[in-house]
Design goal:
The chain is an alpha/beta fold. The chain has helices at 40-47, 69-73, 91-101, 107-117, 133-145, 163-177, 190-196, 219-231, and strands at residues 2-11, 14-24, 29-33, 55-60, 63-64, 76-79, 151-155, 182-186, 199-204, 207-213.
Amino acid sequence: MIHVKGLVKSFGPTMALRGVNLSVPEGQFLTVVGPNGAGKTTMLRILATLSRPTQGVVQIGGHALPQGAAEVRRHIGLVSHQTLLYGDLSAEENLRFYGRMYDVPDLDARVTQVLEQVGLAHRRRDPVRTFSRGMQQRLAIARAVLHRPSLMLLDEPYTGLDQDAAARLETVMSTVGTEGRTVVMTTHDLERGLAVADRVVILVKGRVAFEANRSELDTAAFKEAYRQHTLA
């Protein structure tokens, strides 16, 4: 699904990504962790077609970026710490608005389905500004999966959530992640990031410093690898 080779991104004299190589098979859930300034969000923005690479090869679903950006966007669902929702519209109205943008077939039925998936069907007619931060993030996931994207990109989705809200969001993400989608998530939460992942990557100073399958790690080993590579 994702093939990245020699990815470089610079902002003037500052290099945010320094030759990243990464492959993500279809259906895999990849968690990317790293300290502030490691390049996590920059990499996700490039995958989401929101930023152009300075150098290197980036392919999503066989389409090269930035040339194939228009086609790639149809297959991406993006969730970030900014929910991209309209506060004065209801949950249902937000989803219908985005659904019309993507020409989602049987839109009313699909809106009902995704609201049930994220546990918000009972609040479908309430203005989003009345929602807690955790509820808004769950609605943002509903918005992102509405058009049935094959690739989900999640940038720090736990930001600003309390423990209960984060646990509920984790359950929702596990559900959408098991529907055959490829998922790439960046996070600072090592334990939660490992719990939902098939594979993990540690990004440090714009480079992949460590990667492993979830089956090869427990939480303690992952935390130790993170400590070693981020302090090096």
